[in-house]
Design a protein that fits this description.
By secondary structure, this protein is α/β, with parallel strands linked by helices. It is about 30% helix and about 25% strand. α1 (about 15-25) links the parallel β1 and β2 (about 30-35).
Length: about 200
Amino acid sequence: MNSKEKPRLVFATNNMHKFKEILHAIGDKVELLNLADIGFKGDIPEDQDTIEGNATQKAFFVYEHFGLNCFADDTGLEIDALQGEPGVFSARYAGESCSFEDNMNKVLSRMTGEKNRKARFRTVIALVEKGNLTIFQGEIQGTILLEKRGTEGFGYDPIFQPEGRQETFAEMSLNDKNTISHRALAVGELLAYFSRQQEEK
């Protein structure tokens, strides 16, 4: 795929942690723009009741306002013992103006004494090209720890230990995390889609 054939996409997020992760995962396969690159300041609405709905809403918002092909993601941490919470409310589980620490502390508090600590991270990417929607997903199983470990990553990374690993996401390098994470898996599906498109040309 040469530079003229690269898809040019906006990633609809104000979260630069997410942008950095996806840029790292994509490498030079896509010309990736962020919201600042297209002159957008402010928050994109995400008031749907599913993570699929939020990702789709964000992607169409950028496409409809700027006319640019765009993708957006939404991620939920789904904990068995909490009946799938925090799920679609993962980013604001402890309240609208909460921090990552607030969210983790609420999960740890609610999980006090709970033996079933199984959980999963699930990412949905919604791609809008010329008004057409395509959905990609990535999921990873894991365990909610009793305490935080590690300083890398963001969100719930310090309390989530992926299945088959001894480290939390927050104890992994970005490169290591991007080989197994839910977001990297969803991005992999996105890139496979672009590869198929190129092969068909």
